[in-house]
Q: What sequence folds into this?
């Protein structure tokens, strides 16, 4: 660099000050309060958009990238990011999109939907503001079945990161045969289910699943009675229902969900 | 020979320049030899010529935005050679057409108010953004650039927020890349939108618009492409270098013009002298033919020609 008053490092420091001025609040259900976040910068958006080439089933690259962005962009040191859960993450994702890109989102329509609708644009900010009005919360639950007791809760970012890194990081991006597809869907189903189970109590002994790696966790979950599994599925279903007013939008008979991957950030 | 000093109105400033001399013109014509357009060669030589004709330093010249660079060369062409560029083209029926392209019309198009509007600063999320156009040298880098985000650094002049000012022009290309990575996405979105509007506007500047008619519908857009810009420069300045040498030889031989004197003339003056020589030669030829018919000796002209 020549004849400049400030080095690039100085400039990058100056831009950090801008992060504070342009910060925004996100309501985090697990903390029952709002927390300040920085807007996305160009480098982060670039990283997100690069994850468009990702496994369509696991979304691993996007999950890891966005979780690390949450860590970088949170402006409240008192919050342990690893302990935030997927509900918090959904709200961070949507608010980050609103503040950094636009409050409007246009859905991509398939040929069938295009017959019914020319274009489908929603104001995500309106949906977000309405949704947090009631300070939503989703608590941990206990499922009991005979001598088995499960503690289930929304997966934390730490759990998500662990699962992605241990199981999905090296999987094939492309599925070529129906057999591969069947296996992948089956594995994904049990893996996702496992994320929600935090402890298993059989008789008087309790197993804290967070202390084990995912391969062990999955093996344990595979042994659980169907009634317990159904309880977990109901818990997941209820969570999805809770999110519906925020995520699901309908217009003239066309119902669409906001994508929770890199395409949501496509401008 | 005293050189005329004129002022070129650039996009957001004006600049005094001296008229081109024949020596510099020949230097330029040498770059145009052959059918190919050698952009680097042309720009290296136009940089040197601009340095000789203006008070700009080499750094200031290479930093001129590409439209100002073109405007300066259009003005130099207009003052030193003339406003009309004679072109030969084919019409819609493939008949050869002789067309007069007016430099003044081209200047009018390039300095259109729209481009000034597109360079107007704007405020995005408490950031005051000033825009710019890339220089010719930057266009050469842009053409090799693969990272789409880095591309936009060439259109960003300054970012101001709170009491801080970041002047991107103070930094190298690599440093600018590093800085732009850290700007908020909303600022980047504003920058990309404005950049696209600028490019779209430039892509619509058809330099042949004033000629458009039913019989001639060719278009030449002043796009952000080094080859096209170099081609435009070639188009407006080009003439036969061989004919210049022949005319110089004729003026020195027949009218005793010294090489130094001719080198110092503007191309316009040079063409004036050659035209004058042609007129006198023609007049003299006519008189000699008449005298020969009457049995009289040939006249010795004011240029000492027989």
A:
């Amino acid at each position: 660099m020549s004849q400049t008053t400030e080095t690039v490092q100085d400039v990058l420091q100056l831009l950090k000050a801008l992060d504070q001025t342009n910060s925004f609040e996100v309501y985090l259900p697990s903390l029952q309060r709002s927390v300040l976040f920085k807007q996305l910068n160009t480098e982060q958006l670039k990283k997100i958009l690069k994850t468009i080439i990702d496994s369509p089933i696991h979304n691993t690259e996007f999950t890891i990238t966005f979780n690390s962005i949450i860590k970088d962009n949170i402006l409240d040191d008192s919050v342990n990011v690893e302990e935030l859960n997927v509900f918090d993450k959904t709200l961070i994702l949507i608010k980050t999109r609103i503040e950094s890109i636009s409050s409007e989102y246009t859905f991509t329509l398939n040929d069938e939907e295009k017959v019914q609708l020319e274009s489908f644009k929603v104001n995500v900010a309106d949906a977000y503001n309405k949704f947090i009005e009631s300070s939503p919360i989703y608590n941990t639950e206990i499922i009991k079945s005979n001598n088995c007791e499960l503690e289930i809760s929304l997966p934390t970012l730490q759990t998500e990161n662990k699962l992605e890194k241990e199981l999905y990081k090296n999987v094939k991006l492309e599925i070529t045969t129906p057999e591969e597809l069947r296996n992948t869907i089956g594995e994904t189903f049990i893996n996702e289910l496992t994320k929600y189970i935090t402890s298993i109590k059989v008789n008087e002994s309790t197993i804290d699943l967070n202390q084990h790696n995912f391969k062990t966790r999955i093996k344990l979950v595979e042994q659980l009675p169907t009634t317990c599994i159904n309880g977990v599925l109901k818990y997941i279903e209820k969570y999805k229902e809770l999110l519906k007013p925020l995520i699901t939008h309908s217009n003239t008979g066309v119902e669409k969900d906001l994508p929770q991957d890199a395409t949501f950030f496509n401008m | 020979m005293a050189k005329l000093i004129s002022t070129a109105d650039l996009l957001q400033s004006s600049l005094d320049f001296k008229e081109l001399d024949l020596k510099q013109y020949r230097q330029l014509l040498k770059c145009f030899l052959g059918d190919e357009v050698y952009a680097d060669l042309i720009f290296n030589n136009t940089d040197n010529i601009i340095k000789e004709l203006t008070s700009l330093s080499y750094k200031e010249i290479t930093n001129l935005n590409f439209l100002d660079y073109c405007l300066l060369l259009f003005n130099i062409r207009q003052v030193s050679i003339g406003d009309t560029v004679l072109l030969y083209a084919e019409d819609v029926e493939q008949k050869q057409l002789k067309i007069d392209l007016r430099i003044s019309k081209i200047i009018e198009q390039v300095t259109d108010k729209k481009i000034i509007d597109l360079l107007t600063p704007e405020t995005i999320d408490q950031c005051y953004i000033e825009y710019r156009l890339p220089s010719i040298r930057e266009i050469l880098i842009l053409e090799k650039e693969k990272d789409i985000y880095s591309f936009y650094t060439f259109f960003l002049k300054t970012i101001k927020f709170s009491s801080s000012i970041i002047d991107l022009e103070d930094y190298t290309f690599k440093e600018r890349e590093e800085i732009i990575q850290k700007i908020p996405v909303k600022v980047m979105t504003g920058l990309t939108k404005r950049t696209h509007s600028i490019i779209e506007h430039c892509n619509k500047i058809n330099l042949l618009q004033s000629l458009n008619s039913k019989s001639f519908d060719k278009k030449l857009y002043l796009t952000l492409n080094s080859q096209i810009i170099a081609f435009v420069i070639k188009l407006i300045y080009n003439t036969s270098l061989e004919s210049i040498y022949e005319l110089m030889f004729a003026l020195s031989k027949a009218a005793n013009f010294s090489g130094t004197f001719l080198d110092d003339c503007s191309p316009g003056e040079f063409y004036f002298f050659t035209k004058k020589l042609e007129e006198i030669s023609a007049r003299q030829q006519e008189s000699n033919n008449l005298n020969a018919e009457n049995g009289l000796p040939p006249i010795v002209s004011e240029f000492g020609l027989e």
